[in-house]
Design a protein that fits this description.
The complex is a heterodimer of chains A (about 450) and B (about 190). Chain A is an all-alpha fold. Chain A has a domain at about 240-415. Chain A has 18 helices and two strands. In chain A, helix 11 (about 240-260) runs antiparallel to helix 12 (about 270-290). Chain A is flat and about 80 Å long. Chain A starts with a helix and ends with a helix. The model of chain A is unreliable at about 1-5 (pLDDT under 50). Chain B is an alpha+beta fold. Chain B has two domains: about 1-30; about 35-185, no CATH class. In chain B, about 30% of the residues lie in helices and about 40% in strands. In chain B, the strands form two sheets. In chain B, strands 1, 2, 3, 8, 9, 10 and 11 form a seven-stranded antiparallel beta sheet that branches. A four-stranded antiparallel beta sheet of chain B has the order 5-4-6-7, with no helix packed on it. Classes of the chains: A mainly alpha (about 450), B alpha+beta (about 190). The interface of A and B includes residues 80, 81 and 134 of A.
């Protein structure tokens, strides 16, 4: 499927025929050149073509899922441990799935280079065959090896499949393996996500909609969990900073999403970085509204040494800060109100860093974050109503409701104080509504 | 496209070579290595890819191994091998320099401990893979009967690499032992 095919607007076949007839007339009359006619027609695709595209996509999806299940099945069958088989037969069986999958991939590359379905399914099978092969040999010879080593070997032998067979499904599987490794060991295996970026960029260039978005979601969720898990645990030197690292990642994702998919992309699913960023920002900012989990009390916990993983995470932290700051200064005129609401959470990162050095009072932080969500969520709701965008309205509502819920159960604030604030904010809501209605009324009667 | 195909073939070759080398290495150790007996006690966990296995807790691992050198956790070291009066393997010392010919040793990963009291180590042969039926049986056979004292694993050692050859209970390979027990139970 070419890039053009995917960008074409789908119109009914009759309309397309009509356009063909008419444009031929225009060309004969000398209104447009043959070239222009060609490029105009190229903008549209008949309904049948669009249908065919959809069918092709669902084909890929089904075949890939099928390959996934078969691959998993082979692994499970071999894991049963067929003790009665001799070493020779077991060795043969270790190589059989691998050779079969390799042949299938080769067949695809050599004879059906255009078949995306064959390539994807072959790649998935090959990916699993590598695992089953190593697993069966380890089993036969009782080879020592924890899950970590096994996954690393699998990852290294599987990673080139993404590029050589151009397989996005394998990329998603590998994202999962990297995440698994990070959750297993808290080592900087998340750096392997860097090896995935050239392919993600290629998918982006090809405008491959289905595969790009799935792959991006997988990779971003994996990266986020890996980094947060790798930095926030009791003895981690970076434990105090992990909340800031997570928030910075959220802001950087959001900026990246706007940069890649444009400021006008309104769909949650098709802008994975921005959507992931919003989720992180919403969640972390709510965590800031509690006492006791904000300002770092130690620069890092000196009792645990800084290792490569910590330095790598700090580097990512710094790059994300620089990228977000640069993005905001360069695009400040293009950002809409909702963009600003999301990106201004970046201030808390700066507040956290400076607050640590000047020993800032924690009240400042907690009050600022509560105010931020209060104002931000109301702004989002207004934006949602004004621009008729349900997603903004709902997002604002959820954010606001969670803040209210948290404060209601917050034991750090005295009851009377909480009660008064609730009543004041509630009245403000009703008051604004009444004022807004009146204003509209006045407008209507003037008209 | 041509480059891609060459690279793809290279990848296929590596994917085949890695398991191939694993088999070759194991065969070398099993056929040319020296065999030691390690006293052990098995317990039965699970691995999502490789299926059931029995974790072997070795008696040599019950006490830290003495050393004169300073090691960090996760370092690799050489554990010098010897045999006790019962004919079972023991470790005499941990060293960081590869020992000279004549001295058998195993490459091990250092676990916790210190220079004064010695280090615990992770032994590179702590798994015995078996089917879903056999693995729990092995564990049951060894744990339930208090009289089963004599459980050991035969480990083949070659140039610092070690691999598990067979698991023995009362001088019978584990599968034979289980069969014998099953036939005794039928009678």
């Amino acid at each position: 499927m070419t890039q053009h095919n995917q960008n074409k607007k789908a119109v009914s076949t009759e309309r397309l025929k009509w356009l063909q007839r008419e444009s031929e007339d225009w060309q004969e009359q000398g209104l447009i050149s043959a070239e222009a006619q060609g490029s105009i027609l190229n903008l549209y695709a008949g309904q049948e073509e669009a249908d065919a595209r959809r069918i092709a996509l669902s084909n890929i999806l089904l075949i890939s899922l099928g390959a996934l299940l078969i691959g998993g099945g082979i692994i499970l069958l071999l894991a049963h441990n067929w003790e009665d088989f001799g070493t020779g037969l077991r060795t043969f069986l270790s190589f059989l799935p691998l050779v079969l999958a390799q042949s299938l991939c080769w067949y695809g590359v050599q004879y059906k280079p255009t078949s995306l379905a064959l390539r994807e399914s072959g790649a998935v099978l090959l990916f699993f065959a590598v695992a089953s092969s190593i697993a069966l040999i380890s089993q036969t010879y009782h080879i020592y090896g924890d899950l970590e080593r096994f996954l690393v070997v699998w990852l290294l032998l599987g990673l080139p499949i993404i590029y050589l067979l151009r397989s996005a499904t394998t990329l998603m599987l590998i994202s999962g393996i990297i995440l698994w490794l990070c959750c297993l060991e808290r080592e900087p295996y998340w750096l392997f996500y860097i090896a995935l970026t050239p392919y993600l960029y290629k998918l982006y260039q090809q405008q491959s909609r289905l595969l790009l978005h799935w792959s991006l979601w997988f990779a971003l969720i994996g990266l986020t969990i890996s980094v947060v898990y790798g930095s926030s645990y009791y003895t981690s030197p970076l434990d105090h900073w992990s909340i800031y690292i997570a928030l910075t990642l959220g802001c950087a994702y959001y900026a990246l999403g706007l940069w890649w998919f444009g400021f006008e992309n309104k769909k949650f699913w098709t802008s994975a970085p921005a959507s992931m960023g919003i989720l992180i920002i919403g969640f972390i900012s709510l965590m800031f509204t509690w006492y006791g989990r904000t300002l770092p009390s130690d620069f890092w916990q000196i009792e645990s040494p800084m290792r490569f993983n910590e330095y790598a995470i700090l580097t990512l932290f710094t790059i994300s800060i620089l990228f977000t700051a640069l993005f905001m200064t360069r695009n400040r005129k293009l950002l809409s109100v909702s963009n600003w609401v999301a990106l201004s959470s970046f201030a808390f990162v700066l507040l956290g860093i400076t607050g640590f050095f000047i020993h800032q009072n924690q009240h400042v932080f907690v009050i600022a974050s509560n105010l931020y969500i209060l104002i931000g969520s109301v702004l989002l709701m207004f934006q949602g109503i004004n621009r008729n965008r349900l997603m903004l309205l709902n997002g604002g509502l959820i954010w606001f409701s969670l803040l209210v819920l948290f404060r209601f159960f917050d034991s750090d604030i005295p009851f009377v104080f909480k009660g008064v604030i609730f009543i004041v904010i509630g009245s403000a809501f009703i008051g604004t509504n009444v004022w807004f209605k009146k204003k509209q009324h006045a407008k209507e009667s003037q008209a | 496209m041509k480059h891609l195909k060459v690279l793809l073939l290279a990848l296929f070759a590596v994917q085949l070579a890695v398991p191939g080398y694993m088999i070759f290495e194991q065969h070398q150790i099993l056929s040319k290595g020296t065999v030691y007996k390690f006293k052990t006690q098995p317990i039965d966990p699970y691995d999502p890819f490789r299926g059931r296995y029995v974790t072997l807790a070795y008696n040599v691992d019950a006490n830290p191994i003495p050393t004169k050198e300073v090691f960090q956790r996760g370092d690799w070291a050489y554990a010098l091998l010897s045999e006790d009066e019962g004919g079972y393997a023991t470790f005499t010392q941990l060293v960081s320099e590869e020992p000279e010919a004549g001295q058998e040793y195993i490459e091990v990963e250092i676990s916790w401990g210190g220079t004064n009291r010695g280090h615990y180590i992770d032994l590179p042969f702590d798994r015995y893979y078996a089917s879903e039926e056999t693995a729990p049986n092995i564990e049951r056979a060894v744990w339930r009967r208090d009289q089963v004292e004599d459980v050991y694993a035969e480990i083949s050692v070659l140039n610092g690499k070690a691999t598990l050859k067979e698991l023995y209970v009362e001088d019978l390979p584990i599968r034979e032992y289980l069969e014998q027990k099953a036939s005794q139970a039928e009678e």
